[in-house]
Structure formats: structure tokens, C-alpha cells
Write a sequence for this structure.
């Protein structure tokens, strides 16, 4: 995305030049460092999140080697919810949908959602997801579109996928990237999608990293659209990253995003699923990042 097209939401109010560089919602006034969270013992009631999950894309470099072994380690870290994605082995990693569910059951885990293509076979995916109690199929990305007519076609497809999911008793959602907050023809694309999709069958997954990276205010969005964001991706952003830098994901709890403040509002506005995702490993390993992220989410306090 062209940085010159990045905008703050009008609903977030007027911003000073300083706030453009360091938004209040991105300040880490309440976060703990990884070293602190790894040595802390979670106090009873200290975390108001309850259950939390992980997007398996976080483990993309190693999960192909041993899907069952990786899932077992994730359960030992404290993850109880899984969000999958369509790798070369499919959403269920070489297993049938029922085999995948049975294995997760044995670990005390469940698959709540998966990123997947909206293309051919979508209805079969919805049926397979519903058979094992999944809640969501999610479009992970559509890319920036050239004009509003193209966005209208995307929205039509979202509504069609939503109707298919609703037929099987599950729901469809769209996962934002930074381009979702571009302005086109005087409107913010994310707002346009939310206002044109059918709320009876289409929800949204708020990737909080990409909201902040786009220069938008996640709290303003959560307050403007209560009960439309049912899932979120929780991943942190390097404190040293410039506003224009996109590839700046870091271990949860070590970055610049004020998650205690944001997740407190998210919970009040209808968020149901809190899913860790990490896109780069800042000098460590996928497993170490997942473990540190789980510890942070266990210890987070929203009070």
C-alpha cells in the first residue's frame, strides 16, 4: 500500500503530528516484557480472557514436519483453541475433519475457525467445518482492489459465502490487512465492507496488528461496530518500527501495542475469540514465540 494513502479514521477525532507517529492506543503502558511473563505465576483471576487460541500459520515453517506433535506442544502451552489455514495438507493437516477433531479432543483443544479460500469447493468446506462444530470460515485476504466496483464484487462474494455458512449453522468472516483502511472515493474500505455486508451472516476478524500498522484506531473501530468483530488476531509490533514499516511483527508482549487497553474494550464490545498470530520471529523460533505468547495471554490483566 502506498503510505501516502494511509489515513486515520475520521471517527477517531483530530490527531496531532505526534500522535500520528505514536498513537495513544499503541502505547505499552500496561504490558510486560517476555522475561517478566515467563517468570510470573498467573494469579487467580488475573487474566480476564479465559480461553485463547493460536493461528497455525504462526507455526508454518515447522508444522508440516509433525502436525500432531506441534499441536500437542501448543496444548501444553495453554492454548485451547485452534485456528487453522489451508496449507498444502488442507485445513485438517492430512486428516479427515473428524480425525482432526478427535485428536484435538484428546488434547483438550478444539478448532474454532479456519482461514480458507472463497473459491471452488467452499460449500464442501462449510459442511465439513459444521460437522465438527467449528464456528467460522474466514477469508484471509483479498488484496487491494482498483476501484469501488471491484470492492462491490468482493462484498457480493462475502454475502454469498455468508449465506452458505449460515445454511450449515456456522458463520463467515473477513480478516483485514492494512489495505482495508485505504480511502477510496471518500470512504474507508473497511467501513464500506462492514456497512454493505449482511450482519446476519458475515462477521469480521480484527487483525489488531494490521489496524495499528495502517494508522487506524482499533478502539474507535470496536466502539463504532459493536458485535461485528467476533474474532481478533493478537500480535505485537516492534517498538522500533517506523510508521511505514509493514513487516514488524514481534513476540507478543515485547512490542508497542497496548493490548490490556484494547482487549478490555474488545471484550466489552462483543469479541469472543482471541487468537495469537505471529508473522516474523525476531531472532527466535516459532515454538518459542508461541510459548511466550501463551504466557502473556495467561497473565494479561484487563482491569
Amino acid at each position: 500500500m502506498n503510505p501516502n494513502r494511509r489515513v486515520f479514521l475520521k471517527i477517531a477525532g483530530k490527531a496531532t503530528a505526534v500522535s500520528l507517529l505514536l498513537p495513544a492506543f499503541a502505547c505499552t503502558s500496561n504490558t510486560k516484557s517476555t522475561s517478566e511473563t515467563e517468570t510470573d505465576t498467573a494469579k487467580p483471576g488475573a487474566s480476564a480472557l479465559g480461553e485463547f487460541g493460536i493461528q497455525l500459520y504462526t507455526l508454518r515453517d515447522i508444522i508440516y514436519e509433525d502436525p500432531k506433535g506441534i499441536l500437542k506442544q501448543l496444548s501444553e502451552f495453554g492454548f485451547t483453541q485452534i485456528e487453522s489455514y489451508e496449507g498444502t495438507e488442507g485445513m485438517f493437516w492430512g486428516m479427515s475433519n473428524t480425525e482432526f477433531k478427535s485428536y484435538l479432543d484428546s488434547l483438550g483443544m478444539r478448532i474454532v475457525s479456519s482461514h480458507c479460500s472463497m473459491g471452488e469447493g467452499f460449500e464442501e468446506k462449510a459442511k465439513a467445518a459444521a460437522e465438527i462444530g467449528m464456528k467460522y470460515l474466514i477469508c484471509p485476504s483479498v488484496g487491494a482492489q482498483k476501484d469501488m466496483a471491484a470492492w462491490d464484487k468482493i462484498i457480493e462474494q462475502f454475502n454469498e459465502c455468508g449465506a452458505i455458512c449460515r445454511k450449515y449453522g456456522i458463520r463467515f468472516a473477513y480478516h483485514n490487512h492494512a489495505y482495508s483502511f485505504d480511502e477510496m472515493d471518500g470512504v474507508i474500505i473497511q467501513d464500506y465492507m462492514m456497512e454493505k455486508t449482511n450482519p446476519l451472516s458475515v462477521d469480521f476478524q480484527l487483525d489488531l496488528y494490521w489496524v495499528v500498522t495502517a494508522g487506524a484506531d482499533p478502539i474507535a473501530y470496536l466502539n463504532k461496530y459493536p458485535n461485528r468483530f467476533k474474532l481478533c488476531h493478537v500480535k505485537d509490533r516492534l517498538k522500533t518500527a517506523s510508521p511505514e514499516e509493514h513487516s514488524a511483527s514481534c513476540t507478543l508482549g515485547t512490542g508497542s501495542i497496548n493490548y490490556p487497553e484494547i482487549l478490555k474494550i474488545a471484550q466489552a464490545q462483543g469479541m469472543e475469540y482471541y487468537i495469537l498470530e505471529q508473522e516474523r520471529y525476531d531472532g527466535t523460533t516459532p515454538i518459542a514465540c508461541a510459548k511466550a505468547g501463551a504466557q502473556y495471554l495467561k497473565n494479561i490483566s484487563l482491569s
User: Anything to note?
Assistant: The chain is about 35% helix and 15% strand. Residues 148-167 form the longest helix (20 residues). Confidence is low (pLDDT under 50) at residues 1-22, 29-46.
